[in-house]
């Protein structure tokens, strides 16, 4: 059952399931908390209390926020963590991966550790020689879908971001997501997040105060070289706090595309810190 938390500027939707140490999940832009539909039951079965929340403007959370930056979104989750009343393992995907390191830097008392899944947590830097067809197609579809607030183009991006994933169930999930995104204000929220600079989150990387795991799909089209991006993120963290796990063959959504493999690496990480 959906619960709601009123925060400055709107309200955040979330659900709670399971018993045990607290894990908080946060999806990426242009998505909703159903992105974790495969990971949640695995975490619950492993003995965790799982809170799965919609970002501002997404899912069942309210629309019409004044701003949609990573820093703004981090404040929503800081409020949620305080409301929940105990330190959590915070798992954020893409846009919310950046939110994870902001929280670990600015409110470390609220988290035991963080997991960043294919995080958009640094301002993009690349050389011409880094570019490849997979990345150019992905970034073009993102920019076009956000510029025109087009759910059709966003679905085209998602098909590209889930390499090798086809079939009726996948198309049905895309259609369900599209129906949600066509609600008033939702593609506007996604577009504003899409064009928000990652510089605010990137600046926090050297200041995180909790252990961090970066999980990256090796075929993620959001980055010219996903493995190098993951290594670069960890290199900007304080020495010894960050580590990387690569999910071979996964795109930008490894937790949905290969949930068992992602759960394996996350649970190994959680086992070290959930009761710390």
Helix/strand layout:
Blueprint: E1 3-7, E2 10-17, E3 22-26, H1 39-45, E4 49-53, H2 70-84, E5 88-93, H3 95-106, E6 111-117, H4 133-147, H5 151-161, H6 168-181, H7 186-194, H8 199-202, E7 212-217, H9 226-235, E8 242-247, H10 254-257, H11 259-273
Parallel strand pairs: 3-4, 3-5, 5-6, 6-7, 7-8
Antiparallel strand pairs: 1-2, 2-4
Helix pairs in contact: 2-3, 4-5, 4-7, 5-6
Gyration radius over CA: 17 Å
Query: Can you identify the CATH superfamily?
Result: Alpha/Beta hydrolase fold, catalytic domain
Helicity range: 40-55%
Whole-number tally of structural domains: 1
The second-level CATH architecture is 3-Layer(aba) Sandwich
What is the residue-averaged pLDDT? 96
Give the total of beta strands.
8
Terminal CA distance: 29 Å
Shape: globular
What composes the largest sheet?
Answer: 8 strands, mixed
Content of β-strand: 15-25%
**Number of H/I helices:** 11
Category from helices, strands and their pairing: alpha/beta
Strand order of the largest sheet: 1-2-4-3-5-6-7-8
CATH topology call: Rossmann fold
The CATH class is identified as Alpha Beta
> Are there runs of 5+ residues with pLDDT below 50, and where?
none
**Could you give the order of the helices and strands?**
EEEHEHEHEHHHHHEHEHH
Oligomer: single chain
Can you give me a brief rundown of this structure?
It is built from 11 helices and 8 strands.
Write structural notes for this entry.
The protein is of the alpha/beta class and 276 residues long. It has an eight-stranded mixed β-sheet, sandwiched between helices. It has a single domain, classed as 3-Layer(aba) Sandwich (Rossmann fold). The protein is built from eleven helices and eight strands.
């Amino acid at each position: 059952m959906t619960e709601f938390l009123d925060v400055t500027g709107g309200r955040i939707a979330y659900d709670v399931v399971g018993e045990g140490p607290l894990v908080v999940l946060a999806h990426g832009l242009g998505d909703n908390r159903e992105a974790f539909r495969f990971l949640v039951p695995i975490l619950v079965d492993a003995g965790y209390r799982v809170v799965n929340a919609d970002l501002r403007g997404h899912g069942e959370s309210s629309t019409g926020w004044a701003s949609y930056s990573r820093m703004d979104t981090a404040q929503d989750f800081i409020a949620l963590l305080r409301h929940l009343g105990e330190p959590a393992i915070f798992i954020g995907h893409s846009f919310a991966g950046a939110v994870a390191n902001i929280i670990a830097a600015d409110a470390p008392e609220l988290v035991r550790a963080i997991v960043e899944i294919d995080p958009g947590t640094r301002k993009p830097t690349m050389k011409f020689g880094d570019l490849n067809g997979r990345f150019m197609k992905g970034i073009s579809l993102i920019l076009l879908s956000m510029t025109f607030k087009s759910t059709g183009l966003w679905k085209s991006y998602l098909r590209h971001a889930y390499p090798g994933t086809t079939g009726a169930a996948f198309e049905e999930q895309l259609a369900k997501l599209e129906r949600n995104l066509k609600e008033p204000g939702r593609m506007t929220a996604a577009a504003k997040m899409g064009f928000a600079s990652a510089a605010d989150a990137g600046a926090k990387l050297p200041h995180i105060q909790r252990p961090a795991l970066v999980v990256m799909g090796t075929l993620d089209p959001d980055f010219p070289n996903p493995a190098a991006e993951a290594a670069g993120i960890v290199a900007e963290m304080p020495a010894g706090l960050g580590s990387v796990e690569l999910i071979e063959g996964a795109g930008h959504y490894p937790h949905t595309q290969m949930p068992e493999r992602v759960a394996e690496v996350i649970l190994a990480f959680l086992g070290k810190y959930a009761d710390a």
